[in-house]
Amino acid sequence: MAPQATAGPRPIPWHLVSYGFALIVVAGLSYFLWRMPLQVSDNVALIMIAQARSVREIIGTELRTGSWQMRPLLQLSVNLAFEIADALGAYFLTFKGIQIAQLSALLLMFTRLLRVANARDFAAACVAVVAVVGMHTFYSTIYEMYPINTYMTILVCCALALVLADGPPSWWRDPAAVALFVFALFTVETGVLVWVIIVSAFIVGLRGVTIRGVAGLTAVLCIYLAVKFFWLTGGVPALDQVSASFGFRSYSQQELVENFSDRRLTFYAANVASSLLTVLFAEPRAGWWRFTQVVVTGQPVPLAMWLYVVTSTASTLLIAWFVWVRRQAWRRLELGRGEQLLAVFVAVLGANAAMSFPYTKDAIMSPTGLLFPLVLFGALREALGRIGSASRPLGIVAACFLVLLSFGWTLRAASVPQALLRTAYYYQQQWVHVDQWQIDQGLHYDGAQLALIDRLRTEALLKEVPDVDRVNGWMRWAGFLFDRP
Amino acid sequence: MGRISLRSAVAAWVALPPLAMAAATLAMLGLAALGVHPFWPHQELTVQEAAQTGNDAAVARLFMRGADPNAPGLVFGDSRLLTPLEAAVDSRQAHTVKTVLKYGAEIEGDAGRAAVCRAYAHAEHLLPLLKAEGAPPIEPSMCPQ
């Protein structure tokens, strides 16, 4: 009888534990998303289009109108979702199911990108996952539905692009990357970030998508730009298309024209700078320097504003430290995984900010906001690895800093449900007055469409949504911690 | 060895806040599965309470579930029984008054008179709306003190 080998304790599968953590976060958010009715504005009109127009009509309209926006797949996605909802006879269930599926896919792909291998990685991963949810750019991707949130769609596409780039090359990755890029690009303009991610990843050595795939993506981009700028008569949006913020206030469309017609470049540059800074420091928000304004005018700074600015700034400082301690690797171009992801982040940050020049808001920067926690993970991991080598006083200071940072991001993430409940309450009230809304918007629908609106209204009103101003416990505290855009 | 322990301890403390959030989430989901919602008092409002707080959606939901649009009931902070219309006037919100009327609250007769008196006391800006919707034209002196 052969002697039994003495087996040590089985190693903990930390990567699976991190997936479990991500799924709990998804489940918690989904619980609140499930209570949130579909919104009326920006949603009902699109569903009515889906009911009234065929796929061919939608593509034709997109190409004929010559709009500066070219988003045929946006309405097609809504159409497809509507067809499924119609077949199932469950509109809320379908649209909400898509939202939760997107959220799950996003956080699971994000966790995959972390490549958690040990307990130290897991600790950093926990902070990174709550930072995804706590990022101010993330909230806009889940609280609105049109009825599919386009920004969330692009987030999923960006995460998938990085997953495709981050792996061994194989025959299916190149065509998958091209198909993903086509889908993202013709859904919304920020889909171009899929190209930025894959190309920048390729340059720094993440070559799951090969040079052939990169060439294919670039060809698609050239065709897109040719159609957009040469075939369609559009181009850059005019100043009077959307309201925006600048400095210490917001401007209506008319005010934008009056104040910036002769200095567009200043306005555009301010938007790009605002977009860059908001990801790194949570200030300004949508072009509005709110925190600075409150400080300069001597008003008390709300707790939520402190929380957001301090956690984001501290995280950026940690990332800056990470770059500093790895400077030799940068000089020798010996890029480890952390450096590779940081380089992709910088490329996406620049491209994303540049694309926001006509106007900026939190949601537009959400792709960069997704990569920020990924880079934060690398910095945290490095810091946790070095903490034992530091002198005792420095080690204690660093440990306190990291624990407080983790606490700050957790508070940000844990306050998101309160904001979701508040929005849910607001959306539900909208449905009571949807008839008046149609009159105000000058919308005229036929009998079938009105019957559908009535159905959607019934689905929305029968949901139990608490009045968030009348809740107690954690939800009351969370109201002070969420910095609403 | 001591250094390794320090690393592990710091990593554990860093993971603690997110893990506490995850534990709270699991507890919340478990309780929710049992019909208990720990983050808010999950008690159904009466239609009068919903109207008084301007919660149009809850008003509509309760009417859709068969609540009587004219039955008096208790509201927050008042010992008297109010009809949904009176409670809506208490909310001082025109949209809530319209919601209650849309779902069948009577505005003529005694119900309308009571609502107008309530408006004289709490929300005079709603008087034109009530009159336009058909409330009896009464003077403040005709209202009970």
Structure description:
The complex is a heterodimer of chains A (485) and B (145). Chain A contains 22 helices and two strands. Chain A is mostly helical and 485 residues long. In chain A, helix 3 (55-65) packs antiparallel against helix 4 (72-88), helix 4 packs across helix 5 (91-114) and helix 10 (192-203) packs antiparallel against helix 11 (211-231). Chain B is mainly alpha-helical and 145 residues long. Chain B has helices at residues 2-33, 47-52, 56-64, 84-91, 94-102, 109-122, 127-132; strands at 73-75, 78-82. In chain B, a hairpin with a 2-residue loop joins strand 1 (73-75) and strand 2. In chain B, 39% of the residues are buried. Chains A and B meet through helix 1, helix 6, helix 18, helix 19 and helix 21 of A and helix 1 and helix 3 of B.
Overall geometry of chain B: elongated
Q: What value does the average pLDDT of chain A take?
A: 91
* Ends apart, CA distance between termini of chain B: 82 Å
Assign an overall shape of chain A: globular
Instruction: Give the largest interface.
Output: A-B, 56 and 41 residues
The helix-strand sequence of chain A is HHHHHHHHHHHEEHHHHHHHHHHH
